[in-house]
Amino acid sequence: MTLQTQYPFDKGFVESYAVSNGEPEWFKNLRLNALEKFEVLPMPNPDKTKIEKWDLISFKQHTAEDQSIAAIDALPEKVKALIDVEAGLKNLYIQQNQTPSFLSVTEDLKQQGVIFTDILTAVKEHGELVQKYFMTDGVKVDEHRLTAFHAALVNGGAFLYIPKNVEVKEPIQSIFIHSNADAPLINHVLIVADDNSSVTYVENYISLQDEAEGIANIITEVLALTNARVTFGAVDTLAHGVTTYVNRRGYAGRDARIEWALGLMNDGNTISENVTNLVGDGSVGDTKSVVVGRGDQKQNFTTKVVHFGKNSEGFILKHGVMKDSASSVFNGIGKIEHGATKANAQQESRVLMLSEKARGDANPILLIDEDDVMAGHAASVGRVDPIQLYYLMSRGIPKVEAERLVIHGFLAPVVNQLPIEGVKKQLSEVIERKVK
Amino acid sequence: MAGSTLTIKDLHVAIDGKEILKGVNLEVKGGEFHAIMGPNGTGKSTLSSAIMGHPKYEVTQGSIFLDGKDVLEMEVDERAQAGLFLAMQYPSEISGVTNADFLRSAINARREEGDEIPLMQFIKKMDKTMEFLEMDINMAQRYLNEGFSGGEKKRNEILQLMMIEPKIAILDEIDSGLDIDALKVVSKGINSMRNSDFGCLIITHYQRLLNYITPDYVHVMMNGRVVKSGGPELATRLEAEGYDWIKQELGIEDEEAVEVE
């Protein structure tokens, strides 16, 4: 006998939500098929983290409506700080809870055919493109229960399309604000960089509450087609009460390049998955992520680069700082499929422990099914090096400041790579606050 | 009276329970350049590490005073703020922290809050000093010692010395691994510091460095003690004749040899 759990959503609920959004038939059907799969698929199984008791599915209400934003000045300071207002608003999308509340795209980009809009509008207005790429080559609907949940109930996100041969110079930014924890953030970001195009995109997830319990289910798909280049930055700062599943997936075609710089700074329990599939020959995936764990939070970070293409190159860098009684698992996986000759899979995972009770686990894994390849890994878990502190202190720098310098230096690889000053500064400040 | 005075009395230091220094006495005053020479493994570097407060070295007996203040009671950063500086033999590499940011923190640590060195003034001073030391200007923005060659690290230590302007500096084998051109530049930097307020303790086992920096006093260390002191002529004689004559003169037996028997 099986125990049937009642969820606050069913076929009728999903159907009427799709209809109320005016979604096309194919998208409604995608949701309904996903709902069926949700009911039968198992939960994901993040290596070395038990999530049986995590609530990643319940919510009180599916959406929370908000006002649109007339002027940037009306935004909370915390949000405004992320935007380079002085440089002039260029390409920016702001979503408050489930309301697309601000969108700006330059005329120049519009004329070149760049599409940047919220995901549910994109489904209606750019159906053909979205249908081609939404959960097809990146994340599949039926990978596990949470991907199916996502597809059935997606209620926000953004769509960015860069046409062939278009090189976008200015960074494109999304800010997702979660202020009503009763409504889940089920966000889908889909980025398609068509052949020979290039783009830099940065997203922020930010909470305006702290302890209220809620969930976030985030899927980001980045598709870099032949010879395209995507530079992707993210800073996640969801609150302590929010339990998060975040999946960022890359697909790199021939000679394409995807660079990730991820500041994973959530305060709540988090499962983060970042996989880059190097499908095309000569493709490159470069993943840098930094993490600070504090309080009692439990997190699992899996970073994986899969090599299918010949001469493909994958680099993983993960630096984590653990304090209080936070515990984190860092799985770094370099996988080289048969036939991916001359592939190069490199990874480095380092964890810095700042307290006795904190736990950090770095697992470097290389899975290689081809002879003619290069691969390497480095991993370490330890404390701040007393000899480094001695050196800095011997120049008159007090111990607290010396530790601060070492920790900031340790997390610098991602901070330095973020392309928007405001976001860079925000990440530095979040780090400052969290490691204090 | 100009300058500071560093006074070391009967200093005994152990590492991992093994006694390395067995009663060192030494006084360095502002305006004076002292050289400490001696064969490898006689405790020269231990002396420098103990003065600065390296966490692995344990002072078991004796005292170190700077202008009457008890150095052994101070934390490492307090020793630096009191005026001590150690150019290290093996400087640490610190990823993610630029040379410039690090130096600015070091300088500001000596100043009151609200009285930080103005950025432009700092940059000018750093540029000028780097030029003097014939360093690539890009090294200001590189991470502290990360990927620096041996010679670059030594130059970077002297850059810090010149920027921080301590009262008493200890230079631990600042000459090892340097080619002749780099040695000249490093010496030029050290000599530029010479004035009545600045005292320097130069640790080396090559007389070569002393061709470029003339010490006022030369001390010879053996078996954890200063066994002979003199003027610059002592260094010249060591270069010509080695250390054996001192051992014979003072009846010192090689410690390792004793252990073997």
Overall description:
- The complex is a heterodimer of chains A (436) and B (261).
- With 436 residues, chain A is of the alpha/beta class.
- Chain A has one domain (11-383).
- Chain A is built from 10 helices and 19 strands.
- Chain A has helices spanning 11-20, 25-40, 77-80, 107-111, 119-125, 127-133, 145-153, 386-393, 399-417, 421-435, and strands spanning 92-96, 99-104, 115-118, 156-162, 172-178, 185-193, 198-207, 214-224, 229-237, 242-252, 257-264, 270-278, 284-293, 298-307, 313-322, 327-336, 344-353, 359-368, 374-382.
- In chain A, the strands form 2 sheets. Chain A has a 10-stranded mixed sheet with strand order 2-1-5-7-9-11-13-15-17-19, covered by helices on one side. A 9-stranded mixed sheet of chain A has the order 3-4-6-8-10-12-14-16-18.
- Chain A is globular.
- The mean pLDDT of chain A is 94.
- Chain B has 261 residues and is an alpha/beta fold.
- Chain B has helices at residues 44-52, 76-82, 99-108, 119-132, 150-164, 180-192, 232-241, 244-250, 255-260, and strands at 5-15, 18-29, 33-37, 57-66, 69-70, 84-87, 94-98, 143-144, 168-172, 199-203, 217-222, 225-230.
- In chain B, helix 5 (150-164) runs parallel beside helix 6 (180-192).
- Chain B starts with a strand and ends with a helix.
- Chain A binds chain B through residues 385-388, 390-399, 401-402, 405-406, 408-413, and chain B through 52-55, 75-77, 79-81, 85-86, 88, 91-92, 94-97, 101-103, 105-106, 109-110, 143, 160, 164.
- Chain A: Residues 177-410 form the SUF system FeS cluster assembly SufBD core domain.
- Chain A: Pfam families: SUFBD_core, SufBD_N.
- Chain A: One of its GO terms (biological process) is iron-sulfur cluster assembly.
- Chain A: InterPro entries: Fe-S_cluster_assembly_SufBD (IPR055346), SUF_FeS_clus_asmbl_SufBD_core (IPR000825), SUF_FeS_clus_asmbl_SufBD_sf (IPR037284), SUF_FeS_clus_asmbl_SufD (IPR011542), SufBD_N (IPR045595).
- Chain A: It comes from Perspicuibacillus lycopersici.
